[in-house]
Write a structure and sequence with these properties.
Blueprint (H helix, E strand, L loop, with lengths): L1 H5 L13 H16 L7 H7 L9 H7 L7 H14 L7 H13 L5 H14 L2
Helix pairs in contact: 2-6
Length: 127
Amino acid sequence: MIARALGRSRVMVLPLVGPLPWVAAAVNETISRMRGVSDSFNIDKIREATAASWACSPALSEQDLAYVPQQTLEAQLTTTAVWYRENNWLGQRPVITALKKAMKLFQPLTPISTTFERHHQAGSSTR
């Protein structure tokens, strides 16, 4: 349904298991705070994404409250996708951006063994 609403044949679904999503969200949130900017990929989003269940049915609200949704779920998703496009929310890849930011943090670090080997080789070649 989401793919159709976005006008795509398929969407990529990433399973959020283990600590990686939490670490990536924490790193992204920390970097965003340090830069003084807001980013939608944060720990709160991981909490929402890993909630036990997002499945629901309007049946009880229709029965108990006489509430009937004005649009189907698919139509509402399409409306949301249109709004996202109009407000430039689509095309951003928060997970990939967060991982790239995290990788940049660790790029300057050189493993101690590599530093030692270079130093040792330099020292032994001059003797």
